[in-house]
Structures are given as C-alpha cells and as structure tokens.
C-alpha cells in the first residue's frame, strides 16, 4: 500500500509537467538566443499556427532581425491568438500596446476600407497578380499607406492561398451552392459579396467552426486549401470548389509611432528584413499550396472547378459590390489596380 501511495504521488507530480510540455504547440519555435538584452521589443501578433508558411514568417523575421541588428531588436512573435482575437488586437495595435500584427486580409478591412481591396472578388485573385501588386510601387504604396490615418503602416504581405468552397456535398455549379450554408469571416467585404451572390451564409468566429461543421450548423467554408487541409476541415467537408476569387493574406501591420521611435539605421534594417522574408515566404506559400492540394487529393478530397460560364456569372453578380467598395477604397485607385492587373 505504501509503494502504491508513493507511485500515485509521483504520478500526480510528474503528470502535470508532462502534460504541459506535451500541450505546448510552439515548443519547436523557441528562440535560440537570449532576448533579455534587447534595446527594443516588437510584439507581433497572429491568430494562426506557424505550420502555415505565411505565419511562420514571424519567426523567420524574429531571427533575422535579431541577427541583422546585433541583438538590438527582439521580435516577440505571438501566434495562435495568444493576445486575443483580431478585432481586439487591432485596437491594441492602434494604441501601441501591441506593436505589430500579421492580420488576416479579411480582418484588415476593419482597420481601413482601402485594405479591403485585396478581398474584392477577382481583383487580386492569383499568385501572379499578388506579386505584381506587391512589386509595383504605383499599386503598392497607396495600399501600404492605406491605414496611416489610424497610426498604422502596412509593412508587407504573406499569404495562405486562394479562396474557394470546402463543402460537405459537392458544389458543381451556382445552383448547388445555393443549398449550402457557408461560414464566412467577420468582415464587411465578404458579407457584401455573399449577399450579391444570393448565397446563404453565417458569420462565425473561426474557433466555432469545427463544432458547427460537425453538427451541420454550417455545410460549407469560405476558405483556402492550405488552411482546410492543415486544420483537418477536409475530414468532414470532403469537396472543394476552386473559385480562386481572392488570395488569403496576412497583412503585416506596424504601429507607426513605435516604428518612428527607432533610430534610422535600425528602422531601415527592420523594414528590409520584413520585405526580404515576406518575399521568400510568398514563394514558399505557392509550394505549400500545391503540396496541401496533393495531400488532400491522396486523402480522397474531391476538387471541382466551375465552368467558364459559371465563373462569369459570379463575376457579373459581384460587380455592384466592386462599384460600392470603389467609393470607399478610392475609384481611381481601384480602377488603376484592375487595369494594371487585367482584372
């Protein structure tokens, strides 16, 4: 009996520590340096998991900034919504309580209407158009400065692939889509688009999606192949209709007051590292997109492409949304982006 009590006591002491270690999903991303001596700390938030390339960039920026600044700036990257939901973090970012944020593109429209341009259907809808948009100063600069009035600068962008429909039953055409209740993100652009398409939708926070999908509260997701496969949504929604109507992005927002506090040389190095690592990550995202589709197909997920006529109809139905948002984004700017990108 005495030995049994000792064993039970040992288990009680060891088990919590073992469980805590096992539950840490970020153990493999801890810094290999001691950040305590940094002169400046940059808290960078994100809601997703760094297994997604567009999120892992936060750690790559952390390590490269530390190296390039000789340990003067520590990028304290906090993924997995450690600092709260995106709307809460946006408020903290504006106040300066958080200095940076890899905001999802769907949430970024809540910071500034101009940032909503990346969510508009069939405007910046392909990897190539995204690269053209980012690399053309005439298109990029107005976007980068689109939230300056809020005290926020757009430093760069990474992504998580093109949007489509993950559904529990195959969606071969628009008629099929009308039988689906789609989960969409909490953003005004998406709401307007789905109303224009005449589709049923439910605005729902991402953490509520798994249970809603399992119980049939929703029967479809407006999301990307990368996210749906990595987060196991394809285990229930086994069909994916490749709309490719927009690129899912993480928009790197920086508190302008904090940025301008840095000495000029550190500020330049900081922004250069973000640009370099973001560009490399956009290349990695293309590869991850292809790899996740291949894995999903191996697991039996059905991938569907709408006909040219069906896609044309979706674009036609969405035109009033583009016209309405052009007033918020800037009619001349939107027209220039569409003309240059052939959208």
What does this 3D model show about the protein?
The protein is α/β, with parallel strands linked by helices. The protein has a single domain, classed as D-Maltodextrin-Binding Protein, domain 2 (3-Layer(aba) Sandwich), CATH 3.40.190. It is 50% helix and 18% strand. The protein has 14 helices and ten strands. The protein has helices at 2-23, 53-68, 86-95, 105-108, 127-135, 137-144, 174-177, 188-197, 209-215, 225-230, 256-261, 264-298, 308-329, 331-341; strands at residues 40-45, 73-78, 100-104, 152-167, 181-184, 200-203, 220-224, 239-241, 247-255, 302-304. The chain starts with a helix and ends with a helix. The model is unreliable at 6-11 and 17-21 (pLDDT under 50).
Comma- or semicolon-separated keywords:
10-stranded mixed sheet, single chain, 50% helix, 343 residues, D-Maltodextrin-Binding Protein, domain 2, alpha/beta
Major sheet details: 10 strands, mixed
Indicate the structural class: alpha/beta
In whole angstroms, the N-to-C terminal distance is: 77 Å
Rg value: 22 Å
The figure for the number of domains is: 1
Tell me the strand percentage band. Answer: 15-25%
The number of helical segments is: 14
Q: List low-pLDDT spans.
A: 6-11, 17-21
* CATH topology-level name: D-Maltodextrin-Binding Protein, domain 2
The CATH class label is Alpha Beta
Put the structure in a nutshell.
The protein is of the alpha/beta class.
What's the topology here?
Elements lengths: L1 H22 L16 E6 L7 H16 L4 E6 L7 H10 L4 E5 H4 L18 H9 L1 H8 L7 E16 L6 H4 L3 E4 L3 H10 L2 E4 L5 H7 L4 E5 H6 L8 E3 L5 E9 H6 L2 H35 L3 E3 L3 H22 L1 H11 L2
């Amino acid at each position: 009996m005495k030995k049994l009590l000792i064993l039970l006591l040992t288990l009680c002491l060891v088990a919590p520590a073992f469980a805590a270690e096992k539950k840490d999903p970020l153990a493999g991303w801890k810094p290999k340096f001691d950040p305590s001596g940094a002169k400046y700390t940059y808290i960078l938030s994100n809601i997703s998991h760094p297994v997604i390339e567009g999120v892992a960039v936060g750690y790559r920026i952390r390590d490269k900034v530390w190296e390039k600044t000789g340990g003067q700036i520590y990028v304290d990257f906090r993924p997995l919504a450690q600092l709260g939901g995106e709307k809460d973090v946006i408020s903290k970012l504006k106040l300066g309580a958080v200095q940076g944020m890899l905001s999802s593109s769907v949430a970024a429209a809540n910071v500034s209407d101009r940032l909503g341009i990346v969510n508009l259907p069939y405007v910046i809808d392909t990897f190539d158009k995204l690269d053209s948009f980012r690399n053309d100063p005439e298109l990029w600069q107005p976007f980068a400065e689109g939230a300056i009035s809020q005290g926020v600068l757009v430093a760069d962008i990474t992504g998580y692939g093109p949007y489509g429909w993950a559904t529990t039953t195959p969606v071969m055409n628009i008629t099929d889509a009308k039988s689906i209740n789609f989960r969409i993100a909490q953003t005004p652009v998406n709401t307007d688009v789905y109303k224009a398409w005449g589709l049923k939708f439910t605005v729902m926070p991402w953490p509520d999606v798994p249970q809603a999908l399992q119980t049939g509260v929703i029967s479809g997701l407006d999301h990307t192949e990368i996210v749906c496969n990595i987060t196991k949504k394809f285990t229930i929604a086994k069909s994916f209709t490749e709309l490719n109507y927009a690129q899912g992005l993480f928009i790197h927002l920086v508190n302008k007051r904090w940025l301008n506090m840095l000495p000029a040389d550190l500020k330049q190095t900081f922004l250069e590292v973000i640009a370099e690592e973001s560009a490399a990550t956009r290349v990695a995202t293309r590869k991850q997109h292809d790899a996740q589709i291949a894995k999903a197909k191996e697991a039996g997920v059905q991938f569907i492409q709408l006909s040219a006529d069906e896609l044309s109809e979706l674009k036609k139905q969405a035109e009033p949304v583009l016209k309405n948002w052009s007033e918020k984004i800037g009619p001349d700017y939107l027209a220039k982006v569409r003309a240059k990108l052939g959208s």
